[in-house]
Request: fold
Amino acid sequence: MKKAISIHVNGTTHTVNVDPSTPLLYVLRNQLELNGPKYGCGLQQCGACMVLIDGKAQPSCMYPVSAVKEQKITTLEGLGKEGKLHPVQEAFVSEQAAQCGYCLNGMVMSAVSLLSDNPHPDDDEIREGLHRNLCRCGTHSRIIKAVKRASL
Amino acid sequence: MLKTNRREFLKTSGCLVIGFSIGNISSGQNSFIPQELPQSIRRYPDINAWIEVLANGKVRVFTGKAELGQGIRTAIAQVAAEELELSMENVEVVLADTLRTPNEGYTVGSGSIEQSAMAVRYASAAAKMKLLELASDKLKVPVDELVTTNGKVYTKNGRNPITFSEILDGKQISGQVKEPVKLKAKSEYRLSGKPVPREDIGWMVRAHQNYLHDLRFPGMVHARVVRPPVYGAKLKTFDAGYVKKKVPGVLKTVNDGNFLAVIATDEYEAMRAQKVLGQSATWTEAAKVPATEKDLKEYILKLPVETDRVQEKGKITSEEFTHTATYFKPYIMHGSTGPSCSVAIWHNEKLHIWSHSQGIYPLREAIAQMLQMPADKIEITGVPGSGCYGHNGADDVAAEAAIIAMAYPGKHVRLQWSREEEHGWEPYGSAMVVKVGATLDATGKILYWKYDLWSDSHSSRPGGRAENLLPARYIKKMFTSSSKGYIGGATRNSEPYYSIPNQQVNANFFRGPLRVSALRSLGAYGNIFALESFMDELADNAKKDPFDFRLMHLTDQRAKDVVQKLGEMVSNVKPGDGEGLGIAFSRYKNSASYCTVAALVHVDTTAKTLRLKKMWSAIDAGEVINTDGLKNQTEGGMIQAASWTLKEHVKFDGTNISSTDWGTYPILRFSETPEVEVEIIPRQNEEVMGAGEAAQGPAGAAIVNAIFRACGKRIRDLPVKLFQD
Ligand code: FES
Ligand code: FES
Reply:
C-alpha cells in the first residue's frame, strides 16, 4: 500500500506517496526526477546508485525509502554550492575521467565520502575507497587521478 | 520532445539550412588534389544532411553515429569547428536519429572517425566555401580577400563583418558536396589533433539528462518482461488475474506467443509484478545448454564445423612443427554498467522508439520486419546509454519496448532490463580455440606457420533481420535464427602481420551453446592473444629478445616504429624479484591502428598472488582528431582487456547460465587495476585509422607474456588461473 513519506534530499524536504518498501533509488529517480543516482545492478554490487546518507556514500538501490527517516540524503545534484561545482566534480572534468560516464555518479559520491574521512589519501587508499564501484569502460586510472587532484 | 520531423524541426527552430553545389570554384585551385569523397558523403551528398546554420549563428552538425563513450560527439564538433573556423561552443552535434540524421549504419569497428568525422569535414569545408562565395557577392569583394572567424566573414583588413546568417539572408539553398572540396591545410589546425575536452563530461558531473535511462515523459508507464527459465523454453500458462490482484498499479499483462510482459504505473510496481507474474508462469522444458564452461574447450573441438581457408602463402611441406600450442578463450560478456533500457510509444499510427543501439537504422528495419509493418511508420532516436562495447541488450530491449508499446497505445512505455537479464540474455563474445604450429629456420626466423581457429559467429546484429532480436524468437509469428551471422569477425587478425614465407590459416566455424554477437574487437582479441603468445614462445625458443624477434619479422616501418616506441617507454623498467615484463604487437584488422602493449606483473608464489602493476601502450592511429580521446580509449581498452584476461568467463552448468550478476561474473575492481600509460605516435599527415579496439588483443597477450617472464608458467587457457587450479 502506498503511504506518504517525507525525506530530506539536497537540503529540501520532499513528501512522496509510495510503497514504503520502494528502494530509495527509484524514489530519487522517478518521484524526485533526479538523474544523478543510476540503476546498475539493484544488488549493492556496483555503486552506480550511490548517494550520501548523512555524508557517507551508500548504495541506494536496496535501501527502503521508509528507512531513510531523518537522515540527510545528498545526490550528485546537491554536491555543488551556489552554482559552483564541488572540487571532486571539477577534478573529474579536469582529468576527463569518463568514457560513457554511467559509473561517474557513484565514483564521485565515493570520492566525496572518502575525502571527507581522509582528505589526503594515497593511491592505495583511493583504490580502497572506490572498491565498491565498478567501471566497465576501464576509466579507473583517470578516476584515481581525479580523486588525487581533488585532494590537493 | 524530439517528436517533430526534420522539416518541422527546421521551421520551429527558426534556423536556416544551407546547401549548394560547388560548380565554379574560383580560388586556390592549386591546392586541390584528386579527392575521393568519404563514403558517407557519397551516400548523403546534400550538405543540409550534415550541416545547418542556425539563426543565432551557431552551426548544427548531424552524424549518423552514436555516442558510446568514445567521445565521437566531441570529435565531430572539432572537425566542423575547424573547417568552419568556429569555436567549439558554436557547434552543436545531433547524434543518430532516423528523424534527423544520415543513415551511417552501425557505430562499430572503430569506424566513426574514418567515416562520419571525415564526412563532416568535407561537408563543413564545402559549407565554408559557399558562405564565402555568397559573402563575396554581397560585399562585392573577391573570395580570396575574405576571411572567416567565429561565424562572421570579414575582408582581410578586418572590415565589413557579416554573420553566417546574414550571408544566407533567410534563404535555404539546396545542393551537394562535390569534389574538389578545398580542405583546410592540416598545418593550420587549431583544434584537430588537440586534446579538446569533452563537453558531455561536464553534463555528466552536473547530472544533466544525458542518458536514455534519464528520459521521462508525462504519463510514462513502466514495463518488465518475464523471462523463460532457459533459452528456448515455451510458455505454458500464466495468471494475469493473480498479478493484477497482488500488485496494485498493474495496468496490463502483455502476451504474444511465448513473450510475456507486464505494465504498471510505477517502476517498483512493475518490478514486483514481473516477479509475481514470473512465479505464476509455467514453461516447457527446453533444450539444455549442452556443456559446462569447464569442459568447453574439448566440447568445441568436437562440434561439427564448416572450414574456410583464410590464408595460404608458400607451402607447408610438413605438419611436423618444432613448436605447437593450443590456446583457449571462453565466452565473455559485454557487461554494461547500466543494463539496457528503451522507451517507446505507439501513437497516431506511428511507433517512436528511443534507443541506445549502435545501429538505429538497421534496428528499425529489423523491428519493422518483426512487427510486420512498414519501416516508415517507425522512428528511432538514438540516445547515449551505458558503454556497450558491441552488440549488447540494446537492440533487444528496444524491440521488446516496441511490442509492449503497440499493446498499450498512446503512452510512453519505459522498459528497463535488470542486471540479471543483461547478464543472462545479452549475446556474448564467442569462445574460441586456436591451434598453432611453427618451425624456425637456422637463424631463428619463422619458416612455416600453421594456424587453425575454432569460433562461433562474432556478429548477429539486427541488420534488418528480425530473428536477431531476442523477442522475435518468442512472439507468435516466430522468427528463428538460421543465419550464421558475420563470419568475418572470427578471422579478424588471424593472419599474422609478420613476414613468414610459408603460412596457412584455417577457420572452423561451429554453432556453440550460447547466444553470441559482436564484442569489442570481435575475434581479434582471441586471435591476437594466441598469435602474440605464440610469438613470445617462439622468441624464447629462438633465444631472442621479444622486441627483436618481432622486429625481425616486421617489414612495415610504422609497425616497427610502434614496437620501438614501446621499447623506449619501458627502457627504464627493471623487473624486480617475481616480476615480469611482457609485450605484444598488433595492427588492428591488419589495416587500422598499430598498437603495442607492455605489461608488468608481480607473481608471489608463496602468497599465491598475481598483481598486474602497470601497462604501457604505443599507438599509431594515423591522423588523430582528439589526442586525449585516443588516450582515453586506449587506456580503457587495456584495462578492460586486463579484466577479460585475468577474470572473466561466462559460467553455465548444463542447464542454465549461472553468471547472473557481478558476484557470479566478477570483473576488475579498483584494487586490481593497473596503472596505465599511453603514447601516441604523431602522424597528422596520414589517413585517420580506427583505434577504439586496437588495444584489446595486445593487452591480453602482453599480460600472459609477462606472467611467463615472471614465473615461467605459460598461460594458454583464459582467464588466467595461476593458483586456483
Ligand atoms: S545499482 Fe546499487 S549498487 Fe549497483
Ligand atoms: S565510464 Fe563507462 S562505466 Fe565507467
